[in-house]
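Let's practice the habit of predicting before peeking. Look at the sequence and jot down your guess about where helices and strands might fall. Then scroll down.
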Amino acid sequence: MPRRPHPRYPGPYDPGPDPEPDGYRLRSPLPRLAWRYRSELAPLTLALILLAAGLVLHGRWPGWWQIIAAVAVASGLIVGDLGHRLGLDRPAERAYATTVTAVGGLWLAAATRLGPLRRPLLLLLLAGVVAGEVPWWTHRRRRAKVRVTRAMTTWAEDAAAADLDGAHLQKPLPMPELVGRPTITRPVLVGVYETGEPLRVNLLRKHALFGGATGSGKSTLLNAFLATLAPAPDVLLWGIDFAGGTALIPWQSCFGRVATTPTDARALLEDACRVIDARNRWLVHHGRDAWQPTPEAPALVVPVDELAELVEQLPDAATFLDSIARLGRKTAVTLLVATQRPTQEALGGGALRAQLTVRVCLRVTEPADGELILGRGKAKQGYRPDLLDAPGKLLAWDPPDHTRPVPAKAYTLDRARIRQLVTAAQAPVPELDPDSAAVLGDRNAPDQSPPDHGTAPEGRTTATRPERSQARDDPTAVIERAGDGDPLAALWAALRDAGPRGAKVAELAHTVGRAKTWVYERLQDLHRQGQVERAGHGRWRAIPGFTEHDREP
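Done guessing? Here is the structure:
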């Protein structure tokens, strides 16, 4: 059965079948056994190589047998004389290596001259394999190396069985089932410390920076954050993805906007700054200190994947991000910045980094890269992300909650789990608060001049609900223009004609012929007078029983 398209997007996202968790597995057990016992089979492998080389040399260069014999004897003498420099510190080891080198080379010379498939040569080769296998199998150094290699392979399981601290960090940890309604007002669960304590990060009125080298688990950590933020009803996500578009695509239906080009990224950052300005004005007007996220007025979280690439393609992005980081905390506008190259240029010379107070560092190649993310002097405090030895392992710095250099591991979400979370979050993407939506709507109104740099994507009258169809965004589909005359009377008539379902601010502005800010201010006045009420997210209606003659002038 084909999947039903999501109501917010024209087609479903299908990332394809999940990869096998343990990598590609061969159907036959023979290759796996040959690889596991490759040390024990080394003499047999050498014999097969000599046989193949003899076939090639006899068929193409049979006259080279004298040269091969001379090289074999010389190589044997060199190994016997200089074997101690190759780690063969015992005379018995040097004698064994000299014999194998010389005899193997002389057999190859004879095979080149006479052909390796002659019965005497095949019997000599078989006898040499048997004679060489016995000392090779019983040698203490080879057996010790095999034991160490196999112990390292099974260390994670053995350490976990022995209940050693940190053993569980050596293998992927699936994200546990989240309990309760997801919200940004509580710390977000992203991983677990090696001590077994959960790693929860508070993102409300904070900004986060996390980074690491390629393959360190940056996408894993981003998915762990989005597992809570994407389905949260009090979070609106606007994403910037300059890492090829792969990080945010699985969560696409949970985002209000996703920018993958410099033009779209500039428009998104400019709109985020306008949202901050609108919310600051609302806080001043209502005498509030900080914005409290609710489903009707959600927090705005902006994940930025690959900061260095964004700044390289859009140089003034650092200025926008710095403004958002400085002014966005009390207005609940949060940055979630990820990067693989934590350079001074990408971080705005340190000005932006100073505002990103939540620091998470995955594995890096140089200690200096870790200090660029975590902060200067952290290496002396024990923060050494260059020593992390598994993808997804990290060090967190977020005073006063996380100030210990204790390794942690980010939870992993496979594609099936991401699809499950996205499917469960089928509620509409949260809308911006009316003040912020009105400011962005005025920016896009026909009688307003466009912004100085770029434009927002088309079809975003309120810049909040790109998933709605054109018919639902058309104001004439709900109410007709009330006509010319008193705009307040026209507003009241539009509210009355909207019925119980109500009308959006954009629809009322179209009907009245006024800006959305004017409509919103009148709606607030009527609401305080008890004549209108909210009919849902962003919709208003007249309270039943009131008529135009009952309105206060």
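How did you do? The first strand starts at residue 188 and ends at 193.
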